[in-house]
């Protein structure tokens, strides 16, 4: 199925805080040349890092891109919004070492992109067609890609999570992701943390900007946030949002089926590295441009 590369029609941005630094940080989406891909640029130090899986240098708490000693952290929610809405070419400027957390979901990034106006070029979009199953696992954590027909619409995904805390427990979600499903079913799902982990993070100088305004906090079987959850299964929805963002670092839509069990940023990145490690696992399909009709 032919589709075309998309960008945005005008710059747009907002201010927020960094989850770990607690410092104010601004983000701006800038229209970029068709074919240039998604590129992050730190305006404070003048460093540019392409949004690519092999630039991932840390997956401890979020997905962090790096070149040399320079870092841009928490890229996954922005990448999810871009992939979810099908934006291929944009420059993302950020004023510090991590992207703003906003409300802990991808909804506000998706809102900004929609406000900027998403425009389609006349350049066909390449896709990565999965040709044979690829699996990574560690103990009971697993992530897989399976072949599907290249003409099958959307990105079929299935994910199971399992947490000891009864407020989360075992949750399963399966859906075929497209722009409409992303906006409605995944984008507003917020990140979450266990109250017991917050103390350790703070002691380590992390999560200084974390609050109930930008994460669901779970403690002893209860959701601490007074407003409650956006869905009963908001947790697995957020983890699927993270998968969408992490797999977007493949640099083109994946024509394959994703299946994950307890997977997180590290395994999502390992899955892409495993996919691209063997040229027999995939093929890049680049449709020929449509030639203008000759009168
Ligand atoms: Zn996340």
Low-confidence stretches: none
Distance between termini?
A: 26 Å
Quaternary structure type = single chain
The first-level CATH class name: Alpha Beta
Which topology does CATH recognise? lpxc deacetylase, domain 1
Helical proportion, percent range:
10-25%
- Bound molecule types: zinc ion
Describe the sheet with the most strands: 5 strands, mixed
Order of helices and strands: EEEEEEEEHEHEEEEEEHEHEEHEEHE
Overall strand count: 21
How do the strands of the widest beta sheet line up side by side?
2-3-9-4-5
Number of helices: 6
In the CATH hierarchy, what is the superfamily? lpxc deacetylase, domain 2
Quick structural overview:
The chain has 295 residues and is of the alpha+beta class.
Characterization of this structure:
The chain is of the alpha+beta class and 295 residues long. The protein has a single domain, classed as lpxc deacetylase, domain 1 (2-Layer Sandwich), CATH 3.30.1700.10. 21% of the residues lie in helices and 34% in strands. The protein contains six helices and 21 strands. The strands form six sheets. The protein has a five-stranded mixed sheet with strand order 2-3-9-4-5, covered by helices on one side. Strands 12-13-20-14-15 form a five-stranded mixed sheet. β14 and β15 form a beta hairpin. α1 packs across α2, α1 packs across α5 and α5 runs parallel beside α6. Zinc ion (ZN) binds next to α1 and α5. The site of zinc ion (ZN) has 5 residues, from α1 and α5.
Helices and strands, with pairings:
Blueprint: E1 4-8, E2 12-17, E3 24-31, E4 38-42, E5 47-50, E6 56-58, E7 64-67, E8 70-72, H1 76-84, E9 90-94, H2 107-116, E10 118-124, E11 127-130, E12 134-138, E13 141-146, E14 155-162, E15 170-177, H3 179-186, E16 192-194, H4 195-203, E17 216-219, E18 222-223, H5 234-247, E19 254-255, E20 257-261, H6 265-277, E21 282-285
Parallel strand pairs: 4-9, 11-19, 14-20, 16-17
Antiparallel strand pairs: 1-10, 2-3, 3-9, 4-5, 6-7, 7-8, 11-21, 12-13, 13-20, 14-15, 17-18
Helix pairs in contact: 1-2, 1-5, 5-6
The chain binds zinc ion.
Zinc ion binds at residues 76-77, 191, 238, 242.
């Amino acid at each position: 199925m032919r589709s075309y590369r998309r960008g945005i029609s005008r710059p747009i941005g907002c201010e927020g805080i960094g989850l770990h630094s607690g410092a104010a940080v601004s983000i701006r989406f800038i229209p970029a040349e068709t074919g240039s891909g998604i590129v992050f640029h730190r305006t404070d130090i003048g460093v540019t890092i392409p949004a690519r899986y092999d630039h991932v240098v840390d997956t401890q708490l979020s997905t962090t891109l790096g070149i040399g000693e320079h870092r841009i952290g928490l890229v996954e929610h922005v990448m999810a919004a871009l992939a979810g809405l099908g934006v291929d070419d944009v420059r993302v400027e950020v004023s510090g070492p991590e992207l703003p957390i906003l409300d802990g979901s991808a909804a506000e990034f998706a809102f900004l992109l929609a406000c900027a106006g998403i425009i389609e070029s006349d350049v066909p979009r390449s896709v990565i067609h999965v040709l044979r199953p690829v699996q990574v696992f560690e103990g009971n954590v697993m992530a897989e890609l399976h072949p599907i027909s290249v003409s099958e619409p959307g990105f079929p995904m299935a994910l199971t999570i399992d947490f000891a805390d009864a407020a989360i427990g075992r949750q399963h979600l399966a859906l075929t992701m497209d722009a409409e499903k992303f906006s409605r079913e995944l984008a507003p799902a917020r990140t979450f943390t266990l109250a017991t982990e917050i103390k350790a993070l703070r002691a380590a100088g992390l999560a200084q900007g974390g609050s109930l305004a930008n994460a669901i906090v779970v403690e002893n079987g209860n959701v601490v946030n007074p407003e409650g959850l956006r869905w009963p299964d908001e947790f697995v929805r957020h983890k699927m949002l993270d998968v969408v963002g992490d797999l977007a670092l493949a640099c083109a839509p994946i024509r394959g089926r994703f299946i994950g069990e307890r997977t997180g940023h590290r395994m999502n990145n390992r899955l892409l590295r495993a996919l691209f490690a063997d040229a027999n696992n995939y093929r890049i399909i680049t449709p020929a441009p449509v030639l203008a009709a000759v009168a």
